[in-house]
Fold:
Amino acid sequence: MTLKLSVVIPTFREVRNLEAVARSIETALRDHRWAYEVIFVDDNSQDGSEALAMQLADKLPVRMIVRHGEKGLSTAVLRGISEARGEFVVVMDADLSHPAERIPDMLALLEHNKKDFVVGSRYVAGGSLDQSWTWFRLLNSKVATWLALPLTRIHDPMSGFFAFRRADMPEAHLLSPIGYKIGLELLVKGDFKKPGEVPIHFADRVHGESKLSWKEQVRYLRHLRRLYQFRFPFLAEFMQFGVVGGSGFAVDLLLYLGLQWLTGMGHVAARALSFWGAASWNWAWNRALTFSHRKKTAKLAQWSGFLFTSLLGFAINVGSYYVLTHYVPYFEAHKILALLTGVLLGFGFNFLTARLLVFIPYEAELLEEERRPRRRRR
Ligand code: GDD
Ligand code: MN
Structure:
């Protein structure tokens, strides 16, 4: 018999919730008479989960995959999906936060091809949160959500409750799941044309505790950076290059003042030295951050290349200021605008040479490959 649905549930120390969540799914699907399976993916909780899952398997269509040595919510979910056999996949939490009774509505949207990825959402009309959320937790959740909004059209892209057709699962090598937000990763990297949402009430867990730590939040920021890089490769580089450049300006200023103050150095010498310091700072951060996904070429050669193009950029900056204020009457009267123009030209030059010459891209095909997610064939 072909299975209609696989419900993938990552678990870590959820022994007190396993039976309840399995039963809630059974209750929600009973009337539909669909053949389904529940796949728990447990990271060796050692709390009796495994034994309980065996026991439950006598009465309900559940099984548990226990991972040893591997940890993490996202990779657990991917493992579960890779072993799923149903036509559709639903991913949800074990702690009863996600209402199983919404699954039929999610599947209905998929089945009639109204949607191709359905998220159980707290932040659409009809959706809600448990009363007990503190303002801090709410703010946290909202900020995290806002940061992801440009990446998708979904209002609750953080949700861990979502459904899709298994044939639409992006190929595993396209996914780099760090942290918690596997749903967001699939939404951004999958080739989903019609993502949609059904409202849910998100209930607070009763048993056990959340594993969402501040470490996860930092991971989330790293994850976001990657997703922006994936979706808006040029803009992501441009913004990061700008932020690094801004911080470099502060370094420049500090060195310029500090060197004179500490060593009694003349202001021209201090200016020259501070330029090298700031440019080196920019190079290091651009290598680590802005162009972290580019080839790691030899440091010394890259550093000198970067300093050389920065020097050219600086010359363009000052040179255009000179030309504009000397030969263009308008700028003679608006020197600040001439200065800004010079800064922009120099910045543009630096950015382009950095991304085209200094930080060598990956082979073109590789980038193409990343951008064009292909669907897994069955
Ligand atoms: N296998 C495995 N390994 N499972 C894990 C791990 C892990 O390292 N960490 C957490 N889980 C399981 C939990 O057992 C639970 O079933 C589910 O993943 C969610 O974990 P919680 O610790 O309850 O997360 P949360 O309630 O803070 O976060 C949930 O809500 C967020 C939105 O507010 C998750 O659904 C998040 O994905 C979601 O963004
Ligand atoms: Mn939870």
